[in-house]
Amino acid sequence: MKTIWFHMQGYRDLPDDFRDRYESIWVTPPNDELCHSPEVAKYLHWNLDELEMADDLGFDGLGLNEHHQNGYGFPISPNMIATVLARRKSNAALVILGNTLPLYNPPIRVAEEFALLDCLSGGRLVAGFPVGSPMDTTGCYGIPPTQVRPRYYEAHDLITQAWTRPGPFAFNGRFNKLRYVNPWPKPLQKPHPPIWLAGGGSVETWKFATDHDYTYSYLSFMGHKYAKVLMDGYWDSVEKAGMDDNPYRAGFAQLVVVADTDADAERIYLKHLRNFYSKSLYVAPHFAAVPGFMTKRSFEFQLSHRGASAFSFDFKPHEATWKQLVEDSRMVIGGSPDTVAAQIEEAVRNIRVGHLMVILQIQSMDPELTAYSSGLFAEKVLPKIKGIWDKEGYTDRWWPQGATRNQPQVARPAVKAANGEAKVQA
Amino acid sequence: MNTQTAQSVELPGGFAANPVIIKGEGAPVVYLHGPFGQEWDGFLDDLAAHHRVYAPAHAGAEETEDLEQLDGLSDLVIYYDDLFDRLGLEQVDLIGHSFGGMVAAEYAATFRDRVRKLVLIDAMGLWHDDAPVADHLLVSPEKLVKLLFNDPSKPEVKAKLAMPSEREAMNAAIVNRFGALASTSHFIHPIPERGLKRRLRRIKAETLVLWGAQDALVPPSYAAEFVALIPKARAEMIQKAGHVPQVEQRKVVSEHLERFLAR
User: Fold this and answer.
1) Which pTM does this prediction carry?
2) How far apart are CA B158 and CA B149, in angstroms?
3) CB contact under 8 A, B185 and A144
4) Cis before B28? omega within 30
5) Chain B partners of A283 at a C-beta cutoff of 8 Å?
């Protein structure tokens, strides 16, 4: 299994009365009241320090994403952050999950920047293509909800053509009219970097994944028990498409906290978990559920199946107990390294996941605590979980060709790094 | 709430049929609804006493996939032109409310001879930074009620806001509202201004601008600007009414309409 150290890049110091004072963590939390540039300057260095630490600790990949105008995570340009990481002499994957395609006009910008990153990193890039949240697309960037998916599909076609067709060629789309598509450069990986999809469980995205043989990552903060119904839906659609059950077709994001003992973990991390769930997931429904973001038919289906979910939470996040968060709901995986390793194995086998994105920096945690949790994870958990799926004989066909860390020696296409150095096996 | 029977009107171009509510006898009047869906409020009954009233659903409200071939207001006015053809209407009196007012004005500026008289009720379509049109899409239900109505405690308003209690009917109402908000925001999100200001001068129809004096969604100051830009226009401000004066002050609105549309 691949373990990706994923940084959400949130705002670490939100006021305690945040929920009473503001309607939403996303779209409208007023910047002058809440987002202080000197703090952000500090966070940006911390974020990069933590990502570089994770690289040094031996995680298979480093994960970044894109969001806008919010305190939960405002990694507005993952490509800029990834450029710093791409410069390091490393053999870890750079998993950008991803660029929110509908927000780029024209989207050849994504084709260009991902190609640049792939070249700079020596072919270590994962090119994530999320549709984007209603908050980012319709809220922050003003795209009519009915145009988000059409723009997404067209951007996907444009970018993949830009990477695979000889330039220059003409692209006559509904939203993009380009006479000369001819990006310099094309990616180092051929035919192009692995494309990963990410979403919150929409049927359209599953079909898009199977249509193109892409991997699908479910980005939730609710844990594997909650994700089970959705992931089963995804695996059903994979089966119906006649494809194999390779767990590397799936990714999952998971909050993880590690300490020397289970009791220590509760003592140290509970306040950070409460803070995260009460503030970061406080998104106003009128920003999160926008009419037109899905088709009328999908909406009708969802409405008529309302209440059918097998799993629900009945606690308030800001007063949640460790037992509720970790033991009962399994929203969070936490405890001693042994506990964490066992719970991770249970989770990834339950929902069949080959790409695990671990979130070890949880909003209000400072770099020291992040280093403690990540260090224990790398030293004592990683060795126990990295062999998951090996004995079943699955290979990861969606891993970047230049990310050679922890990879089998054979059958990897050789990619010469941009700096001329051969990639070294970790 | 639409409790009227609609007539399914087939359209060319691969669009879904439009369920047009038709009632009354007399000269034709077409009513284009606002962003929240097809409706038949009491003032249309008043109007149907002396007119034949046609109340279509907004394009794409029934089938959101229709929006794939509607890329802007110019496509939309052609859609309505096709619809009027199918209804056999040569010339109409056109009433538009809110988003529907914006569409009605665009239509009248494009197909100049097909509109005899034009009524704009709290119409969208213009924008000034010092009087921003509020967001009706990304807003909480509680705040939306305040944006729409001067006095939400009035029985007429309560009746307008009431949802069916039975699950299936409630789901149908929610889906209708979803389709209406999705298909109208397709043309105007996030700011309902697409250059109408430049085209209003072309409107030939005599125009009545009705406006709720307490409209918190589209500020009343826009009434004067519509009047200034449309060659033959006058405004009537409706007191004690918000964005939906035809519901909050049905009698006053109906009297204005009756006088203005009389032949």
Assistant:
1) 0.94
2) 10
3) yes
4) no
5) none
